[in-house]
Amino acid sequence: MEQGYLVDTNIFIAYFNRTLPENGMALIEGGLPCISVITRIELLGWTLISEEEVKMISSFLSDVIVFSLSEPIIIKTIALRQSLKIKTPDAIIAATALTHNLTLLTRNTSDFKQIPELNSVNPFEL
User: Fold this and answer.
1) φ, ψ for residue 27 (rounded to 5)?
2) Where are the alpha helices (DSSP H) in 8-120?
3) Among candidate residues 124, 126, 125, 122, the one with its CA nearest the CA of residue 5
4) Among 5, 14, 84, 119, which is 20 to 30 Å from 95 by CA?
5) What gap in Å lies between CA 11 and CA 86, rounded to an integer?
6) Structure confidence by residue, pLDDT tens digits, 52-94
7) Hey, which CATH number is domain 5-125, 1.10.443.10, 3.40.50.1010, 3.40.50.1000, 3.50.30.10?
């Protein structure tokens, strides 16, 4: 990937389900994807996940960059929450993308459109 992308949880779900359009697949498979720790939690934290799915997702996640909650991300998350009506997980994901100067790949661009400095792309609309 020439351009850096932070991949939202909903895009990985589509990727794993093979419902992500070809252009979106190319963005993920074209380089080393980056995710927020929130995406790792969301992918592995659902109640009906099987042992096989945990192994598959964990294996996949071992090949991505996972950004933890660093102090700059925390500070940016707080600023976003203070200034906008945004859910905490979305604020963390947006803050991670902003802190690392990454474009967010998400199907829910409407969740992030209120953040003018954030670049987001919906792979379903490419």
Assistant:
1) -65, -40
2) 9-16, 22-29, 37-44, 51-61, 71-83, 88-99, 109-112
3) 122
4) 14
5) 19
6) 999 999 998 998 999 999 999 999 999 999 999 999 999 999 9
7) 3.40.50.1010
